[in-house]
Specification:
Helix content is 39%, strand content 18%. The chain has 400 residues and is of the alpha/beta class.
Length: 400
């Protein structure tokens, strides 16, 4: 059963309706392309929302997953196994943070960040430091804790009351950030590049304000790198480009190349405040997920992938600037490396739909932003093809 009508009918009977699906069924992938049930090819410039960092059906990742599945997948965190430490070592080398807690997703990684920040101050004897400062346009997930530090009221309001004591500040106002942080603030949460909020990089001035507030009050900084981390921007993590020094970092999406895994990266001082039983997970850090993560991290730590992303990212930016010069509906190009957003003066949805019909997958975020997160291994030929298709899309939507 793989036709669109068949799949729709089955889901209508049995799937909780929390997703608004697009009218296509994908049945296989290869490299930068997905194929629907009719065999039509689509250039995938979304990569599972930044997940398929090595592209689809990557041979090395596929071989490692198959070998591990045939060996051992799960023993629980009651026991040692040889892969968690290896994956954590590679994450430490990339981030500079010495400790890792493995979980199953980016939202779970943020939940751990929030708990660990609270636990740090509890251990320090400052039990009034329970509040958080987060950013307008910020998005950290849909679980109750992560949702509490997510700004969009559309996501939040149906589930109130959430965690109390969260203050949101405008990321264009560094002074507001400094003023909002007090001796009751446990942590500041900020994506170095806001993803769901419209692909909005923090300014260097705002990053400096985070550093100032943390230095002045001792407040912890949580860098949400779920979307911007792991080479997406040409840096291992984008906090490094901004001169930030986080105590905690949430990681997800690209880490397993498609196998579900998340991680919370932790400074030594925060790790020292934690005790056995403070947090846990049944599946987190299982052998299959860690084996996949090691394959992804190997390419980042020992290969030339970061340089590749910087090179093709610069090419992509140049081509997008040319596209914007032709189509005034594009008012701004934001992002870095292979994390790009086109700010439009109108709703982005018609452009997304027409692009899909023409074999190009992009998506809309923040209503008027067209977002692109291709696999990190994409080449300039496919980037050029994506821009060429977008050129026809913008021309034809305008004509309509």
């Amino acid at each position: 059963m793989s036709t669109l009508d068949d799949v729709r009918a089955l889901e209508a009977q049995h799937i909780v309706p929390t997703y608004k699906r697009q009218p296509v069924v994908f049945v296989r992938g290869a490299g930068m392309y997905l194929y629907d049930a009719d065999g039509k090819a689509y250039l995938d410039m979304l990569s599972g929302i930044g997940v398929a960092a090595r592209g689809h059906a990557d041979p090395a990742l596929t071989a490692a997953i198959a070998e591990q599945a045939a060996t051992l997948m799960q023993v629980s965190n009651l026991y040692y196994h040889p892969l968690q430490g290896e994956a954590a070592k590679r994450l430490s080398a990339l981030s500079g943070l010495p400790r890792t807690f493995f979980c199953n997703s980016g939202a779970e990684a943020m939940e751990a960040c929030l708990k660990f920040a609270r636990r740090y101050w509890y251990t320090a004897g400052e039990r009034s430091r329970t509040e958080f400062v987060a950013l307008e346009h910020g998005f950290s997930g849909r679980t109750m804790g992560a949702l509490s530090v997510t700004h969009n009221a559309h996501y939040r309001e149906p589930f109130n009351p959430l965690i109390p004591g969260v203050t949101f500040v405008n990321p264009a106002d560094p002074a507001a950030l400094v003023a909002a942080v007090s001796n009751r603030t446990a942590a500041i949460i900020a994506e170095p590049i806001q993803g769901e909020g419209g692909v909005r990089p923090l300014s260097r001035e705002f990053a400096a304000a985070i550093n100032e507030a943390c230095a002045k009050t001792g407040t912890l900084y949580i860098a949400d790198e779920i979307q911007s981390g792991l080479g997406r921007t040409g840096y291992p993590f984008y906090f490094q480009a901004l001169g930030l020094s986080p105590d905690l970092v949430s990681v997800g999406k690209a880490l397993g190349g498609g196998v579900p895994i998340g991680a919370t990266l932790v400074s030594e001082r925060v790790s020292a405040a934690l005790s056995p039983g403070d947090h846990g997970t049944t599946y987190g850090g299982n052998l299959l997920a860690c084996r996949a993560a090691i394959v992804v991290l190997e390419q980042l730590t020992n290969g030339s992938l970061l340089e590749h992303v910087r090179r093709v990212g610069a090419h992509f930016e140049s081509r997008l600037k040319g596209l914007a010069a032709k189509h005034p509906v594009i008012t701004e190009i934001r992002g870095a490396g292979l994390m790009r957003g086109l700010q439009l003066s109108v709703d982005a949805l018609p452009f997304i739909d027409l692009a899909r019909e023409r074999g190009l997958l992009v998506n809309r975020t923040d209503e008027t932003v067209l977002r692109m997160l291709p696999a990190l291994t994409i080449d300039t030929t496919d980037l050029d093809k994506a821009v060429e298709i977008l050129d026809t899309v913008f021309t034809d939507v305008k004509a309509a």
